[in-house]
Amino acid sequence: MAILSTPLQYINSVPPVTRFFTAATLASSTLYLWIRWTTNNPVPYLTMVPGTSLFFPWTLATSALVEISVIELIISLLVIPASLSYFERLWGTVETLKFIVVCVTGPNIIALAFNWIEFAVIRSEFFLYGMEYHGQMALFISLLVAFTQVIPEHQVQILGFIKARVKRLPMAYLTFSTVMTMIGFQSPYILIQFGWFVSWIYLRFYKRNVGDSLGGVVAYGDRSETFALTSWFPPFLHTPLSMLGNTVYKLATRFHLVPTSVPHDVESGGYSQVPGGARAEAERRRALALKALDQRLANSSGSPTQSGASQAQPSRPSPAVPAPAQNERKPSPVEMDVADTSGSDDERR
Fold it and tell me: Which of 90-104, 113-127, 223-237, 255-269 has the lowest mean pLDDT?
């Protein structure tokens, strides 16, 4: 019993949503691998196949629980549960469950529609029956986006020698997805791109936050500048993306597609103050401080060097030197003798 007590204690310490999701992933993946090993037939009722998913609509959600290889299953079990456990303690059980459902179902729906559009244009049944969407790639990049929201400046070490900040990881994974999609592996790598977009929209506008500092007032999303759409792209794309994003946001607000948020964001204390929220807020404040410092340094570098030096070292007052009197003439020796003589005559009198 003493040997079994430690694993049972560890399992009990895992939050419930993370525990259930991990067990479901292990069970679904094992079932899929066993069916393929025994029959070698497709399993359209476990994974999402665009041509048959209309008859098995639950695969839009359950396909994320299936990893079709042992290596993918091991990677998912090493990465996903630890990340989900972090956010379940940070957000709570309900919000974590909603995040999983949105970030798994949303990309699958977009991928289904995208494949049907490809079939309508190219007229190839390969896009309906030759692709099998599965796995937790969409959820993985969604978790990276969430980490970028709460701890963007945190530095991680990958494979023991690669160091990178958390905010750089989503775009690196997105670049990998783009390359794999372009060379012909649309399924399942395109889910990474859809997962990034869906998770950012959800965290930006729809995630429900209840902050203690707001007196229980409900706020939605994270409207801070550090989590804007332009923050993911290089500066030369900021202007067109801002114009496009503002136009879409105005239309969505007009049709009440975006919930109204109170004028408080993460930096002003509007973020969810559940366990771990203080650390997340401190990371966000640090990121804003670094950004403000970079802007000030950039502005100061544009000023002339001499003016900067004169402002840095105030001029010292020079010692006072008496100015020579103007039009002052020395008396001649004759005038001095006359003055002395007149002075002596006065004394005699």
Answer: 255-269
